[in-house]
User: What shape does this take?
Amino acid sequence: MNKILEEILEKRVVVDSKGKEYPLHAHTSPEQGEFLSQLVTQVDANVCVEVGLAFGISSLYIAEAISKKTAPRLISIDPFQKQYWHDIGRLNLERAGYSSFVEFHEGSSNLVLPELLANGEHIDFAYVDSVKVFDALLIDAYYLTRLLKIGGLLVFDDCDFPGVKRMVRYISKWPHLLIANKHNVYRTTLKWRTLSKLIQIIPKNRKIFSDSLVISDEKLGTNATCIAFKKIAEDERPWDWTCNF
Assistant: This one.
């Protein structure tokens, strides 16, 4: 583990450029950081994208995992880095010695990702830990899957949040993606499982209830807080493709 990351996790504080300390919060846990690092190594990633830099904890895990590559690149996107995070994420990457291969974009992902695609970029790994709004995340998923090479991984955090959960349930049905790995798996509540079983015995239940009630997160494989999707093909869905989720 990088010394800067080790020090932050030990002291539970981060420091801005003026030496002011802030309590460490809303950060990636060491367990999930190792999970991300293993995924990056698993796909032999060279070019990575992260949406949501914050204090840079997950970024440090990703950067360390690619730091020994010949020409590593970490494309970091965070419109709130200065406003909410005091530019500490970028500073931590610099302190750790990774700034030479970090490319920071202060714009919103819905503007930056289409630009990367238009420029012909190709990536191996993407991690999204930003807003929890369904349609905003769906835009990220749309563009990141097009930027990903076949075999690359797209990872979403906080998949137990309602908006994120709804989004990952939807993309889990995309034919060009496959759930490859999960961290922090959970089970739905007994009350929901009981309701779901009752619904399933009703004739023609799909015509009466939405799939969100009929099909559980367990059946879809979306029952985890952090989910990695593997791109197994290019998106060749027909113009009228649709699904229930």
The beta strands are 13-15, 21-23, 47-51, 73-77, 102-105, 123-128, 148-156, 177-185, 224-231. The two ends are 40 Å apart (CA to CA).
